[in-house]
Amino acid sequence: MPRAAPTSTSVIKVFDVMSTDLVRSKMDEPLDLAVKRMVERDVGSIVVTDGDTAVGIITKGDILRKAFLKGIDAGNITAKEIMSKPAVTIETDSTLEEASKVMARKKVSKLAVVKNGKLVGVITATDIIRAVPAQVSYLEELVRVRFVPHDLRAS
């Protein structure tokens, strides 16, 4: 049975907008290989894992601050050494409102999404921002259909 369309950001779930096509790195992977994959996939972060568990995240900022600006050769440092840790996670069935609050509280813009402790995706502040206008449009349509007389509705 299809789910009912959400009516506000407080009921939109993380799994509705998260990305499941995430880029991962093992903890012992050299940073240069992780960065190469980030560039190839055109993403701003890579989740560092230990098996199916998210243990950290590497962002472009981490790479610049912790390696590039210090003159460290990316081939001589591992993902574990540069990652921000621990990974800040959220469950798939959490709401976008909850995800936003976690991001604000932890001062991050990306969350590793987990289901029963297993990494299943990533959600970013941009994902949340993109979801809100869609909901506004849905609410406008709902108001139009529900409250505007038939003869005044635009076709």
Short description:
By secondary structure, the protein is α/β, with parallel strands linked by helices. The protein has helices at residues 14-17, 31-41, 60-66, 79-82, 96-106, 125-147, and strands at residues 24-26, 45-50, 53-59, 89-91, 110-115, 118-124.
Structure description:
This protein has 155 residues and is an alpha/beta fold. It has one domain: CBS-domain (Roll). 39% of the residues lie in helices and 21% in strands. The protein has 6 helices and 6 strands, in the order αβαββααβαββα. The chain has helices spanning 14-17, 31-41, 60-66, 79-82, 96-106, 125-147; strands at residues 24-26, 45-50, 53-59, 89-91, 110-115, 118-124. The strands form 2 sheets. It has a 3-stranded mixed beta sheet with strand order 1-2-3. The protein has a 3-stranded mixed beta sheet with strand order 4-5-6. A hairpin with a 2-residue loop joins strand 2 and strand 3 (53-59). The longest helix is centred in the C-terminal third of the chain and has 23 residues, at 125-147. Residues 1-9 have low confidence and may be disordered.
